[in-house]
Amino acid sequence: MKVVHFVCSGNTYRSRLAEAYFNSKKIPGWKAISSGIHADRDLHGPISWYTLTLCREHGLEKFLSPGWRQTCKEDLEKSDRIVCMEEKHKDYVVELLEKTVVAIEIWGIEDMPSSLDEKASMAQAEATFSAISSKIDSVFVV
């Protein structure tokens, strides 16, 4: 089984959405995991409310991992493909691995701004989900 590893900052939003959506597609021979370069700080709890809301709306709850995961060398080395949400995530991954041994992509999907109200946060989360699902559908689903 090949592994795609989605990496973001806290593993409470973007990478968890990507992991759940990817695994919901049931792509033969592939599975997804996710992690965050600062997940061990657990700044926002196990998952953001907007991530959970989106997963419920799109039927992805059963594909959510049970908790956040800190990005670590062991998981990265077991991955066949690494998708980083931002350039800073790639920098962290490359430094942790000490060399590039697998394909690393940057999708340019920014984190949720902290200044948004509930309605704006949900709109931003929908846009993020749309960007992630479109990328997965175009890159991985034939």
What characteristics describe this protein?
142 residues; alpha/beta; Rossmann fold; 4 strands; 41% helix; globular
Describe the structure.
The chain is of the alpha/beta class. The chain has a single domain (2-139), classed as Response regulator (Rossmann fold). Helices cover 41% and strands 15% of the residues. It has 5 helices and 4 strands; from the N terminus they run βαβααβαβα. It has a 4-stranded parallel beta sheet with strand order 2-1-3-4. Helix 1 packs across helix 5. The mean pLDDT is 92.
**Reported CATH architecture:** 3-Layer(aba) Sandwich
Secondary-structure element pattern, one letter each: EHEHHEHEH
Helix count equals 5
Query: Which fold name fills CATH's third level, the topology?
Result: Rossmann fold
Q: What is the 3D shape?
A: globular
Topology:
Elements: E1 2-8, H1 14-24, E2 30-36, H2 49-57, H3 73-77, E3 81-84, H4 87-97, E4 103-106, H5 118-139
Parallel strand pairs: 1-2, 1-3, 3-4
Helix pairs in contact: 1-5
Write a concise synopsis of the structure shown.
The chain is an alpha/beta fold. It has helices at 14-24, 49-57, 73-77, 87-97, 118-139; strands at 2-8, 30-36, 81-84, 103-106.
